[in-house]
Specification:
Blueprint (H helix, E strand, L loop, with lengths): L1 H45 L3 H55 L35 H9 L1
Length: about 150
């Protein structure tokens, strides 16, 4: 029985290791493809005139910053969702504390624990909305999904 358990654990670990290795190989392949694309683009850029090289570099930087901005927006959305969840939990816990304090008023004074002073200040970031929405065409599916949820 113990030997079978150990064999099963070993097989599970081997399977997990193989899956992890496969995922890493795929990741390496994708990175190699990306590197080849970047090398090709770099070689093509070297053959261009200096003015075109500068314009191409600026275009690449704009693309990189746009992608980074989208990633940051996604992170912000996740953090805002988490904030809402934590605010809801805080309300639930504050209600429990109030209920507990109310039940303690029924207990004789000499048995009552010290009263806690719980004040929670949650700051909100005020936003100014103009009534119009500006977005990139490629962000439309994400925008629609967020509007629905």
């Amino acid at each position: 029985p113990v030997l079978r358990l150990l064999e099963a654990q070993l097989q599970d670990q081997r399977r997990e290791h193989e899956e992890e290795m496969e995922a890493l190989k795929n990741q390496v392949d994708l990175m190699q493809e990306e590197l080849e694309k970047q090398q090709q683009a770099f070689l093509q850029t070297l053959q261009l005139s200096p003015e075109v090289q500068v314009e191409f570099g600026l275009q690449q930087e704009i693309t990189r910053l746009t992608n980074e901005n989208l990633d940051l927006k996604e992170l912000l959305e996740k953090l805002e969702k988490n904030e809402k969840k934590l605010k809801k939990q805080l309300k639930i816990y504050m209600k429990k504390v109030q209920d507990f304090e109310a039940s303690q008023t029924m207990v004789p004074v000499e048995r009552r624990p010290h009263k806690w002073n719980m004040q929670v200040a949650v700051q909100r970031k005020e936003k100014d909305f103009q009534g119009m929405l500006e977005y990139y065409k490629e962000d439309e599916p994400l925008l629609i999904r967020n509007l629905i949820t």
